[in-house]
Amino acid sequence: MHVYYYDEKFKYQGEDVIDFDELPENATDVSPEGLYLPEYDAEKREWFESASKEYIESLQPKPQLSKIEIMEKEIAELYYLLAVGGESS
Prior knowledge:
Layout: E1 2-6, E2 12-17, E3 27-28, E4 38-41, E5 46-49, H1 53-59, H2 67-83
């Protein structure tokens, strides 16, 4: 059986596969999929998101410049160097 563990504050602590059918203490067979900081509600038998919007946004990857944008930036820097007589700032 696949089980998901939580601590005394019902925060997700990990998962395991066990060989017996009885759930251990502080464990459930309900999966916390798709959550950043899962917290378990034992009465409802479901996980919910406990992470703030700011925390979730901080985990998102920063947008990367495309190759064209990188080349445009490099060309602009070259034009600048030519305009100031070839000396970089």
